[in-house]
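Sorry to interrupt, but I need a hand with the structure work. I would like you to pick a protein and set down its sequence and fold. Please put the record directly below this note.
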Amino acid sequence: MLFGFIGTGAMGAPLARNLVRAGKEVVVFNRTRERCEAVLAAGPSARRAESPADLAPCDTIFTCLPKPGDVLDRMLGTDGSNGVYALMKRGAIHVETSTIDPSTAHTLAEHARKYGIAYVQCTLGKTPALAEKAQEPLFIGGDEAAIRRLADIFPLIGVPNQVGSTDAACAVKLISNLVGMANLAVLAQGLQLGMRAGLDLATLLPLLADTGARSFQMDVRGPMMVEGRYTPGFALELAHKDLVLGCGMAGDWSVPVPLFEQARELFARALQQGLGKKDCAALFLSLTQQGTQGES
């Protein structure tokens, strides 16, 4: 089986490398050619595609791109007929690993069917470090026959979790990020209150960590807030993107999510303050700036 990869960034590259290390033949394409190099270095079974047309012989093509629009543009093209789907052979499989919304997944699956292509949503759960070790949670839904055909492949790139539909595969990741970023907003506001009380944050954080306030975001990003370290692990602009997608998903399904909407608004404000390239922990910096402006 010949595999193609479109998008070899922070998440796509380690997935592709895992297949190369397993001896699979992999063709990689990225708009920035240099980003293919780290995959090519993983083994002789990898080669670079000079254009999407070089992916036409692939039996399975993976996509891992930043935004839903990027996936639509690449697979459908400008008018729905000049994208990668039009190049793929009938019976091939498209495995979409980006963080996208269910509506986009439906559009992709519908167009894939028109070309005789099976669509599988395989959303990624955590971090590039886990992806490198093939320990990334995979939330898989879509064409059941295609999923069965790839049953031996998914464990090579991560930890498969079959969740049923494309809706479910998209929703698990979006719900995770909705909850995680809402928790982050709560933590940032709590630390603000601590500052107002005259508490040293380096003292406050371990005290909170021994209470019901503790969370994953506190463990990972609490120290970043205290120390003012905002080197991006998960950029604020991407967090905002996922909040927009998640709240949009809830709206499509008529599920009220007022707390998530409030978190989305806080992240939107931070984005407007020019903090998008920093880690999402910079939401604390945004709130602190707002507080300072409020006092002046």
